[in-house]
């Protein structure tokens, strides 16, 4: 009986590995640097969320923020990636890691250029406690920068596909009706009824909010395309991924 994993040529006497898994031909290796770094990123995201939870008086409002949701996703994906890197298992699907990267980049970009910018028209600048300030920096600055560094320095290039940029928009598109439905269920005048000023129906009306959503959605798609193009042409990591 011929073994299913290999066949021997009667003419050459060589063994074909056509049915052998790639891991059996090229052994996977532990990636301790990537594992430790990703574990620290996951810890930073969880710490930021924990600080916000400790200082929050409205957990429903807190967990409605895209910032908190994207950081929880980063914590999960990076913890999972750290485990796989430490145990010499294959990397996560680039569709998953790319989505997490894009969402945390959206968090950082929107915060620094829109929400924390008094001239943007959608500013959310306010007095913060010391704990809130630390959480703010962890969630909006540390985790986005760390996720980008992990991508550029510890991840093999060329794994993202063009179609991913559109697929990654599913979560932001679903977040839009989530924010509107949540706001509609709360009483008018409720503090934080809508999570962000550009989604505030009381200020802009439904038509205005829809226009804002289209503009932001297009911007997010462009950002996804930028991630795809950079990944396509960037050099490989210097540290073994």
Which characteristics define this entry?
single chain, 241 residues, mainly alpha, two-stranded antiparallel ribbon, 2 strands, globular, disordered N terminus, Pr6Pr-like, transmembrane helix, Pr6Pr family membrane protein
Q: Which class best fits the helix and strand makeup? A: mainly alpha
Shape: globular
**Share in β-strands:** under 5%
Overall average pLDDT: 89
- Total count of helical runs of at least 4 residues: 9
* DSSP, total strands: 2
Given as residue ranges, the uncertain stretches (5+ residues, pLDDT < 50) are: 1-18, 20-26
**Overall helicity:** 55-70%
Strand order of the largest sheet: 1-2
The tally of structural domains comes to 1
The Rg value, from CA coordinates, equals: 22 Å
Largest sheet: 2 strands, antiparallel
Distance between the termini: 40 Å
Along the chain, the helix and strand elements come as EEHHHHHHHHH
InterPro entries: Pr6Pr-like
Protein name: Pr6Pr family membrane protein
Keywords: Membrane, Transmembrane, Transmembrane helix
Organism: Streptomyces morookaense
């Amino acid at each position: 009986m011929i073994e299913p994993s290999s066949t021997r040529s009667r003419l050459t006497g060589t063994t074909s590995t056509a049915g052998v898994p790639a891991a059996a031909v090229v052994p996977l290796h532990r990636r301790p640097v990537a594992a430790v770094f990703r574990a620290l990123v996951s810890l930073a995201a969880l710490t930021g969320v924990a600080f916000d939870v400790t200082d929050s008086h409205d957990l429903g409002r807190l967990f409605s923020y895209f910032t908190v949701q994207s950081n929880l996703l980063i914590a999960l994906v990076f913890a999972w990636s750290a485990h796989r890197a430490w145990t010499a298992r294959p990397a996560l699907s680039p569709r998953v890691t790319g989505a997490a990267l894009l969402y945390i980049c959206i968090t950082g970009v929107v915060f620094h250029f829109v929400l924390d910018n008094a001239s943007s028209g959608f500013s959310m600048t306010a007095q913060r406690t010391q704990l809130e300030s630390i959480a703010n920096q962890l969630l909006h600055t540390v985790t986005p920068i760390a996720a980008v560094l992990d991508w550029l320095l510890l991840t093999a290039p060329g794994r993202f596909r063009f179609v991913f940029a559109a697929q990654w928009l599913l979560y932001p598109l679903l977040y839009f009706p989530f924010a509107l439905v949540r706001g509609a269920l709360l009483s008018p005048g409720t503090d934080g009824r809508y999570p962000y000023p550009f989604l505030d129906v009381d200020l802009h009306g439904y038509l205005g909010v829809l226009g804002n959503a289209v503009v932001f959605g297009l911007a997010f798609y462009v950002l996804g395309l930028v991630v795809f193009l950079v990944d396509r042409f960037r050099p490989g990591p210097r540290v073994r991924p």
